[in-house]
Amino acid sequence: MPMEKLSERIMFMPPDPAYDRPMLGYIKGDRFSIAIDAGSSEEHIRLFYSELEKEQLPLPELTILTHSHWDHSFALAYTNGLSLANEKTCSHLQAIAKTDPEELFRSYISEDYSFLRKEYKTPSSLDIRVPDISFRKSLRIDAGGITLSLMHVISPHTDDSTLILIPSEKILFIGDASSGEILSDADLESGGRYRKEELSSFIKTLRKLDATTIVHSHWQPVPAEEEISYLEGILAEF
Ligand SMILES: [Fe+2]
Fold first, then answer.
1. Could you tell me whether strands 161-166 and 171-175 are parallel, antiparallel, or unpaired per DSSP bridges?
2. What is the reported pLDDT for 109?
3. Domains and their CATH numbers in the chain
4. Cα distance between residue 99 and residue 28, in whole Å
5. What's the chain's Rg over C-alpha atoms?
6. Nearest to 38 by CA among 3, 69, 4
7. Ligand 1: distance of its center to the CA of 216 in Å?
8. What would the DSSP string read from start to end of 126-172?
9. Are 196 and 125 spatial neighbours (Cβ–Cβ below 8 Å)?
10. Cα–Cα distance between 30 and 149 in angstroms, integer?
11. CA of 50 to the centre of ligand 1 (A)
């Protein structure tokens, strides 16, 4: 799946709905490059790295997780370089890493794990890792010629959503933050269960940020105004 370009320095490998694999982002700095999310499995991240190699782009030396959900984090064991997430994401992954793999395999994403099973045939194939570096609330990263602004925000999807804003390009990576809570395959179909307070807070956050393009993990990039209107439509239904 070839890389798609959002600007000279920002690219992504598109999501793959057949496996529920999220997009994997790439930011090319002069001093080092950064990936957004590790992906769901070794196969997923190998695919990403092979696309980078085809484009003669250096492998990321830092991988930032948008949140702890398995499709974004379970390939952490296979990343190049260091990894980073907010402290809540790190604590969720610590708990997951301690869980018996059989139990994890059985219970992850409630009783529905069809996509997990597509990537992992046996519980013993799971190798859960915790990011190397954690941050609280916000963090600024200068990769050389491009700066990223990370924020741990309230979102309707999880309690550990990190947004990544690249102010120079007005591009905002949101992970799954604008989806509702996903507890089953049925929630995946419907876009998830929303709670009014978190949704309202998230819309306010999006309004405050100076972004023109929003990059979802499981959807194509959209204009920020379009995203805000969509979420306001959901909020109006409460
Ligand atoms: Fe998620």
1. antiparallel
2. 60
3. 4-236 (3.60.15.10)
4. 36
5. 17
6. 69
7. 11
8. ------SEEESSEEEEE-SS-EEEEEEE--SS-S-EEEEEETTTTEE
9. no
10. 17
11. 25
Q: What angle do CA 70, 72, 74 make, to 5 degrees?
A: 50
Extract the tokens encoding 222: 């959209």
- Please report, to the nearest 10 degrees, the dihedral formed by the alpha carbons of residues 197, 94, 73, 49 taken in order: 150
Residues measured by CB to lie within 5 Å of ligand 1, the ion:
69, 176
* Tokens, residue 74: 């379970």
**Torsion sign (Cα): 51, 56, 59, 63:** negative
214 phi/psi in degrees, rounded to 5 = -115, 130
Residue 221 Cα to ligand 1 middle (Å): 17
Buried/exposed 34-54: b ≥16 CB within 10 Å, e otherwise: bbbbbbbbbebbebbbebbee
Condensed to tens digits (0 to 9), the pLDDT of residues 125-180 reads 999 999 999 999 999 999 999 999 999 999 999 999 999 999 999 999 999 999 99
pLDDT given at position 111: 52
Beta-bridge mates of residue 85: 134
